[in-house]
Amino acid sequence: MAKIETPRPIRGTQDMLGDMADRFAHVVETFERVRKLYGFKRIEVPVFEQTAVFSRSLGETTDVVSKEMYTFEDRGGDSVTLRPEFTAGIARAYITEGWQQYAPLKVATHGPLFRYERPQKGRYRQFHQLDAEIIGAAEPLADAELLIFADQLLKELGISEGVTLTLNTLGDYESRELWRSALVAHFEGHKDALSEDSQERLHRNPLRILDSKDPRDQAIVADAPDIDAYLTDDARAFFEKVTDGLKAAGVAWTRNARLVRGLDYYRHTAFEFVTDRLGAQGTVLGGGRYDGLIETLGGPVTPAVGWAAGIERLGMLLETAQSAALDVVIAVENDAVLDQAISGLTALRRAGLAADIVATGSPRKRFDKAAKMGARTLVSAGVGDGRPMLNIRSENPDTIAKLDKLLRPAFR
């Protein structure tokens, strides 16, 4: 009989067990706990949407839309895309589900996203993100609150050391348009020296040239005008209120006047939390204000701001895996008391204790196996003088008393 070949995992995906799975779970659990402290409601949106949701919001000419999206035609002939990011789907839901009635709406979610790009450290084709948004709030306080939320999340994960909040303003619409015109004029004067990618972006998306890593662009970008010269009084005041909020909360930040968002619907605040601990992929959390996005999807004029963070990248920054330790393990050293042990195990779990049982293999080796499981307390269950017997091993007398009270009824 021919050997059956096992299908290989798709490049850019990962299976998780043990250390990475523990890191992943710890990031998600911490996010869920912190988002509740800030009053963010948990939402879910579909993993796939009509392609127009992303092509309209991200822009037909962006790399994500033109090169990286997983798009296919379903059996009904509709063009469908696996979500490459969260914000567009959340914006679509805000319109179609009538969530405007709850504005300002603070929402958070997490889950898988999909982009066809070259896999590298901390970057996958199926990856996972945390996401937080405030929709319907035009005030700079919303921007500050999201940044304070993100800062606390990183601190509670224990990874804030060596991570820096970099901040910029893109101004209001008038500021941005004035700056855009100045950038086009500057880059036009050096067009022949720009890289091919930057020449293509010159009129389509000139702000993206400021992101270029191509050495041919670096000197030209260094001399490009900053937005500060083009900020209106209102835009300047908005940015000051954001930074005042950060100061009041004790959140440190640095200015990065080259930090941009290329799409036209981005306004005012743009930010990234960056680190040098992940090699080239230095951003661990980023976002900004996108006051024009919901309009591009056919909704009303709606201010909004949000951020996203890669779960895998955050997990890589953790010092150690945060595995969930068991409170109790019961080693069944005589099969005659298996039923009693199962009854006792159930009582422990119903009392809110994380518990497991070792009841297979050689009875003589079960206790040693249980001892290797890292539980806080070990219980051996056997037979003595013809009767069920319990031995609870803990250095804490209160723990022994508590477990004896829970387990004893099952071993009478």
Quickly list its features:
about 400 residues, alpha/beta, BirA Bifunctional Protein, domain 2, Rossmann fold, 2 domains, 8-stranded mixed β-sheet, 4-stranded mixed β-sheet, 14 helices, about 20% strand, Histidine--tRNA ligase, ATP binding, protein biosynthesis, histidine-tRNA ligase activity
Description of the molecule:
The relative contact order is 0.12. The protein is of the alpha/beta class and 412 residues long. It has two domains: 240 residues, BirA Bifunctional Protein, domain 2; 84 residues, Anticodon-binding domain (Rossmann fold). The model has no long low-confidence stretch (mean pLDDT 89). One of its GO terms (cellular component) is cytoplasm. Homodimer. One of its GO terms (molecular function) is histidine-tRNA ligase activity.
